[in-house]
């Protein structure tokens, strides 16, 4: 029922070849200037002194510990926001209630908060001079300048992604299918797992990919609550900044390129999901034909 | 009218309750610290801080550049999303993956890479310099950086909607004699408009607060190319936390207002066009 | 529900493990450009300490902008020692959180300054614009690159150096100094947010005719960008850069690391420590070491912030706080 590929479209719903060509070229030129060239600049700098130094920079214990920390933080922050995003979009897109625009605006808000400020607010709450600071110090619990604070800052900056991906999608889909499922006797959870989730999987995937990328790349907010202890509380972006400030450009850009390569990992994941769903759909169609 | 209109779907209480709880804990509670810290200032002092000449100039630059960048992304993002979902061309999957790059790249690296390209001796800057256009270290550089970091928002919000768009609708329009252009304007655009507006809002919101990528390319000259977050850091350097939170609170309030208005327009538009409700 | 619980557990575990620092571990919270110096110094100290006491120490380093690092310590980053690039950043530890006594500077020799530096002018190879002194920086057509005085110590030193120079010229007064610095800032096309960012703007982007920075930074530029690329010009008069160090009392008393932390800082004044400073182009306090490295430290007439500006607190307030001279220069009103 969902057409994913242009190949399925008939001539009546396709543009003339020259229009397609023109639009494609325009899009690619724009992307070349704003995405490809900056990326090329990163790799050029990273490989300026050859592959050996590139690998050397990545094999450094400090670089490895930064990569590890970045992955840990992302692995905690993204699932937290995933659960929130699904809950929020379910409430917002499937129901009508007063103050909906207000709620959406509050969800958007973390984006407009400067990373500098996003870090600052956690310092104001958990810092030694903050609200909970004395209590935390008494019980020897560390939030900021340790992993929990960095997770909180990352959760904050990636807060809206999943919800914001899902809301327009769920709104466009309406509630007809869910209502039908319920009428046919499915329970609420069944309806969600069997009807809603398959319908929103693309939006969900994009949301996770975006949160993931942003969580790994976040610099400003995490920088405020990290403490910058080398090999201990430095994430990859913080490590990159330190290397850059040491004029160690090759190592700085090598570590940055690792983050860029993560975009390619998400590509692999997305392709895999696409492939699986295509196979599944083909299988379902085969079942229909058998009957 | 009741708070919530009746619906046969279950789970509103749980979903809504969790949403509000999590939102309160992660976002609203810490943000309230900002407001409370600001309230330690007298009103006169607060007003003096947030309306200072340089602060006003910085608001103008930050909001202006963010708006222009989001506008560029609105058009460019729709174009990219369209091309990626509708057409086939070599390297498409790679291009699709690259769209997320501005998020994955640490903002500081993005800023440095863009400055390298757009500085007067850079690959692109070199071509622009003879034309009398200087990008890096000028307000134009701010727009370039903000366009870069905001691009994925529009593309990634529009893309799933375009993918889910049913071909039958377009076919029906075509059968009824609509031209391709008419189909786009009357069928496709209204459907993707909410997503498009969402993308615009997010790109705009994100641009307002951006620091890392802008700081390298902006030039940071007071009254000319100084962004608001830099002023906040300037306050912190004087250990003036209250002054910093005052400027941050005003930014928060303005962004909140702007995003709220955009969301209201969107909601109202959705109503009028009766999104299959 | 189960996953959420395990996430919570992970968070708590991380919180607890973060606080488990052993007694033989020191954290040195320092500013951006000191990494090379402490990279050389720390192993030397660890070896020396082990030889004398048999105890094996680990020293963690944290680097970032000077003021930002000081704020982190105030807000709870548990630094045993703090090594900043100007005294106000350590004063703040007393002012804002009483982590150290007010008289912290008098606890170590030389007002707690193990070494000093000064502001120099870095020009392009062959000095094509013939820049010799601060007075050349206000000429029309000269482009000056320096970091932002509002947010960096490096920028503040350059600003004060130019101000002090103008003040000390024949017939110099506050008004003339303000005009002089204003004219210099008019020639600044980029105010970078960090000292090293300013260097990159000057060296890599090829912007500006002169870069204002620390003397020891010139050596770092030479190591990375090549010695033939630029020249160092020593002005007729400059400001003494004073990077102080201090033990953070509240932290070492809590962690039980006072002895180690004090030994660590004292090592900076030892002949070995002074030697490492000189090798990193920081001017040592020890006259014998200074003499040994005299060829790399030309004699320059220097003034201190205390002499000309009546102390750091006053200098910060009159020049860099909100409404100070820097803000006034950039005001249209």
From TrEMBL, chain A:
Q: Which residues form the ABC transmembrane type-1 domain?
A: 67-270
Membrane topology type: Multi-pass membrane protein
Coarsely, its chief localization is membrane
Keyword rRNA-binding tagged: no
Annotated compartments: Cell membrane
Q: Which Pfam families match?
A: BPD_transp_1 (PF00528)
Q: List where the protein spans the membrane.
A: 21-43, 63-90, 102-123, 143-163, 249-269
Keyword Transport among record annotations: yes
Described by its record, this protein's role is as follows: Part of the ABC transporter complex CysAWTP (TC 3.A.1.6.1) involved in sulfate/thiosulfate import. Probably responsible for the translocation of the substrate across the membrane.
Per its UniProt record, what PANTHER family does this chain match? SULFATE TRANSPORT SYSTEM PERMEASE PROTEIN, SULFATE TRANSPORT SYSTEM PERMEASE PROTEIN CYSW
> What's the subunit arrangement here?
The complex is composed of two ATP-binding proteins (CysA), two transmembrane proteins (CysT and CysW) and a solute-binding protein (CysP).
Its name, as the record gives it, is Sulfate ABC transporter permease subunit CysW
Q: Which organism is it from?
A: Parachitinimonas caeni
Q: What's the name of its gene?
A: cysW
UniProtKB/TrEMBL annotation, chain B:
Pfam families xref list:
BPD_transp_1 (PF00528)
**Could you tell me the membrane topology recorded for this protein?**
Multi-pass membrane protein
Q: Read off the PROSITE patterns from this record.
A: ABC_TM1
Q: Which residues cross the membrane?
A: 12-36, 56-85, 97-119, 131-155, 187-208, 246-268
Task: Provide the protein's localization.
Answer: Cell membrane
**Is Transferase given among the entry's keywords?**
no
According to the lineage, what is the superkingdom?
A: Bacteria
Signal peptide (from-to) = none
Q: The ABC transmembrane type-1 domain covers which part of the protein?
A: 59-262
Q: What InterPro entries does the record point to?
A: CysT_permease (IPR011865), MetI-like (IPR000515), MetI-like_sf (IPR035906), Sulph_transpt2 (IPR005667)
User: Keywords of this protein's UniProt record, alphabetized?
Assistant: Membrane, Sulfate transport, Transmembrane, Transmembrane helix, Transport
Matching NCBIfam families, A to Z?
3a0106s02 (TIGR00969), permease_CysT (TIGR02139)
Q: Which PANTHER family match?
A: SULFATE TRANSPORT SYSTEM PERMEASE PROTEIN, SULFATE TRANSPORT SYSTEM PERMEASE PROTEIN CYST
Name the protein family.
Answer: Belongs to the binding-protein-dependent transport system permease family. CysTW subfamily.
**Subunit info?**
The complex is composed of two ATP-binding proteins (CysA), two transmembrane proteins (CysT and CysW) and a solute-binding protein (CysP).
Its job? Part of the ABC transporter complex (TC 3.A.1.6.1) involved in sulfate/thiosulfate import.
Query: What protein is this chain from?
Result: Sulfate transport system permease protein CysT
TrEMBL record, chain C:
Keywords in UniProt for this one?
Periplasm, Signal, Transport
Q: Where in the cell is the protein located?
A: Periplasm
Asked whether the keyword Signal is assigned, the reply is yes
Q: Which InterPro entries match?
A: Thiosulph/SO4-bd
Q: Identify the main location.
A: periplasm
Signal sequence span is 1-22
Record flagged with keyword Transport: yes
Q: Which domain of life is it from?
A: Bacteria
- NCBIfam families to which the protein is assigned, alphabetical: 3a0106s03, PRK10752.1, PRK10852.1
Q: Which family does it belong to?
A: Belongs to the prokaryotic sulfate-binding protein family.
**What name has this protein been given in UniProt?**
Sulfate ABC transporter substrate-binding protein
Organism annotation:
Parachitinimonas caeni
Q: What is the lineage of its organism?
A: Bacteria, Pseudomonadati, Pseudomonadota, Betaproteobacteria, Neisseriales
